[in-house]
Amino acid sequence: MKKLTSLLLVMMIVMMTSCEVVGGIFKAGVWTGIIIVAVVIALIIWLISRGTRKN
User: Fold this and answer.
1) Over the stretch 14-24, which tens digit does the pLDDT of each residue have?
2) Long-range contact pairs involving 42-49 (C-beta distance under 8 Å, separation at least 24)
3) How far is CA 48 from the centre of its chain?
4) How far is CA 51 from CA 25, 40, 45, in A?
5) Spatial distance between the Cα atoms of 36 and 4, rounded to a whole number of angstroms
6) What domain of life does the UniProt record list for this protein's source (predicted)?
7) What is the DSSP letter of 10?
8) Fewer CB within 10 Å, N- or C-terminus of the chain?
């Protein structure tokens, strides 16, 4: 019974840390996506303003 309790405890610890890792990856993914979208929008605005400028 003691081995089973130890095994369950180890499994819970491993599962909790893996969830934290996955959460960290998703947070990084969200911020990366936000930055990419902001850069693309800025590029589009720059191209439009450059195209409408009369020299």
Assistant:
1) 666 667 767 77
2) none
3) 30
4) 39, 16, 10
5) 48
6) Bacteria
7) H
8) C
